[in-house]
Design a protein that fits this description.
Strand content: under 5%
Shape: globular
Number of helices: 15
Number of strands: 0
Distance between the termini: 59 Å
Order of helices and strands: HHHHHHHHHHHHHHH
């Protein structure tokens, strides 16, 4: 009898437990809306940061809101190009390079004579890439300025200009690079980087024309002499081979595209490691004994 009562007492709480409330229906959950900063707020933030004269704050602000596509934003961003700070100028160029509002191109074109850009090789290089990102024929005149092997421009700036011209799908872009190759052979400047310049020129010419003439400047010049009369520019870029295509694509990726590509690469590496780990564990296991012979 005592045993029976103890059993009832021990089970009693189970009978009086309150039922758990049903799980909330996901469809009934309130939708969380993250409000993005407006163009007006972004422009005001950039303006305020530039007034503060704290380079770190200015750069961070431009990186955070400088890509919002708006004329208000690009107008304030362009003011950074006149800064005495190289970091601020570079951040401004970066923001205008990737800002998709059409006003960003006009503001970049107006900056061609800014001494903060023309006198600083690093800024001049970033400026060339920013123009190339726009892939507009209006940029060609600026990109060809000083584009000769004997130029006082650094080799990095010349490489950036040649690569940027490869983005401009116009017959004049091909002509500009061919003209440049005529200044990089014997008798041209021999200091660091220039003799390797043909790599960038060849890549841009291949993207523009679809021709694969090799790395000889003479061969390209001869090909263009024979072909330019009937040459017609395609709307789409011609593909490159393997690694060259990956390098070209990476050069013109937006920050968001680079972030996504890096994430994809990390995920792929993780999958490869998991596969290698599974293979190692499988290989480390001792073979099963054959029950028939007991071995």
């Amino acid at each position: 009898m005592l045993t029976f009562l103890l059993a009832v007492v021990s089970l009693a709480p189970l009978g009086f437990q309150e039922p758990e409330p049903p799980a909330p229906d996901a469809s009934e959950a309130p939708e969380v809306v993250i409000e993005e900063i407006s163009a007006e707020e972004a422009a005001a933030a950039i303006k305020q940061a530039l007034k503060g004269k704290d380079d770190a704050v200015i750069v961070a602000t431009l990186e955070t809101v400088g890509l919002i596509p708006s004329k208000l934003v690009t107008k304030e961003t362009a003011k950074a190009l006149k800064s005495k700070s190289q970091d601020v100028v570079l951040a401004g160029l970066q923001a205008l390079r990737y800002n998709t509002d059409k006003s960003s191109l006009d503001l970049l074109l107006k900056a061609k004579a800014y001494k903060q850009i023309t006198k600083d090789p690093k800024a001049a290089e970033a400026y060339a890439y920013a123009l190339g990102q726009k892939a507009d024929k209006k940029c060609l005149k600026i990109l060809t300025d000083g584009l000769v092997g004997t130029s006082s421009l650094s080799s990095e700036v010349l490489k950036a200009k040649v690569s940027a011209i490869g983005r401009i799908r116009h017959k004049d872009a091909v002509e500009a690079i061919i003209d440049f190759t005529k200044t990089t052979g014997r008798g041209g400047r021999a200091r660091g980087g220039v003799r390797n310049m043909m790599k960038e020129a060849e890549r841009s010419l291949m993207v523009l024309t679809g021709a694969d003439v090799g790395s000889s400047t003479a061969d390209w010049q001869e090909w263009w002499y024979d072909s330019k009369g009937s040459f017609k520019m395609s709307q789409q870029e011609w593909p490159l081979d393997g690694r060259a295509q990956r390098q070209w694509d990476t050069l013109w990726m937006t920050p968001k595209e680079k972030e996504e590509a890096a994430k994809s690469a990390r995920n792929q590496r993780d999958k490869n490691r998991e596969g290698d780990s599974d293979s190692s564990e499988e290989g480390a296991r001792p073979p099963k004994r054959d029950k028939k012979d007991g071995k």
